[in-house]
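Design review, sub-item: ligand-bound model
Attendees: FS, YL, KQ
YL presented the inputs for the zinc ion complex:
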Amino acid sequence: MNRKTALRACPVCGKRRAEILAAMRYAVPEGFPLPAESDIVACLGCGMVYADTSGTQADYDRYYADFANYENPNGQGSGMEGADARRLEQSVDWLAPRIGAKNARIIDIGCVQGGLLMALARRGFSSLSGIDPSPRCVDLLRAAGFSGHQGSFGHIPAECGKYDFIIASHVLEHVVDVREAFSALRQLLAPGGKIYIKTPDAGRYYNRKGTLPFQEINQEHINHFDLFHLDMLCAAHGLHVTDVVRKSIGERQEQNYAVGVLLAEKEQEACIAPPSSEATHLKQLFAAYILESRRRLDSFSEKIRGRAVAFWGAGRGRNGCWQTLSSGGKRRSSPLSTAIRASRASVSRAASFSLPKRVCVNSPMTP
Ligand SMILES: [Zn+2]
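KQ shared the predicted structure:
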């Protein structure tokens, strides 16, 4: 077992002793704010799995403000595209009866262009606000008639008040300082209010069909929660979980995306969860996912060995194929690394011929 003192404290329990599950390398363009390398680790204190990134929250804020593509018209969360729109409507089907009063003060943190707020407005909810680090997303939000604030968990704008219902959907997996985020959530919550949390369920990455190897390990998703660790976080921050849902989102059965959903409300006291054997499940399932990804990547690299390879349409998933992986802290080039280096050289050559910008090594995520 390879252990280390992590650069980044565990997002759930705050400890730093961790076991290295994988060492990831990412191909990044010049001036990219996020580090090109990070270890995926399992906390020895609580079993949480996370990226031990050297990037600060300021680096990530800059990335989301300047490099991510969520402000694009068909970006995830915009509700403009068919599958995205249907996903948001389904979320509102679940949320509407749990929010209750149509005049409840609602805020969506990390709201991007406000697709979910628009879906709520169509159901008659009237007090709708959003926070996002991207100034372009905030402009779009205001243009759509909502109260938009530029900010993040670490920088909640002073004009924000208290809210009856807080939405943190697909955001906590992106946050460097998760404990600071939970303090902010508690602070924004009005008495009797509720918090809705949705994240990918890392306990179900393994054996998911129709995905690329290592697809779930990328530079945006730096916290790999399962429901156990989300519940533990809520308890540690004085939030009582009232609803827990394991669900899958996606149009096609084989590509369903496993997510965990929690609804929580404020309690008076924070409490420490008792030690549980469930804490180690995530590490075991994650290790199985890494093994499965490595086997698939090795099998793929065997097929392309000695051949010229071109990727068209570089995105998060393809970037995952360009990653090199080593295990146990000692770097070992995978069989694909030759292809990766060749691809990167090709990208440089392509750039000198002014090919489209999409021939870029690290473009932002899609769902
Ligand atoms: Zn921990």
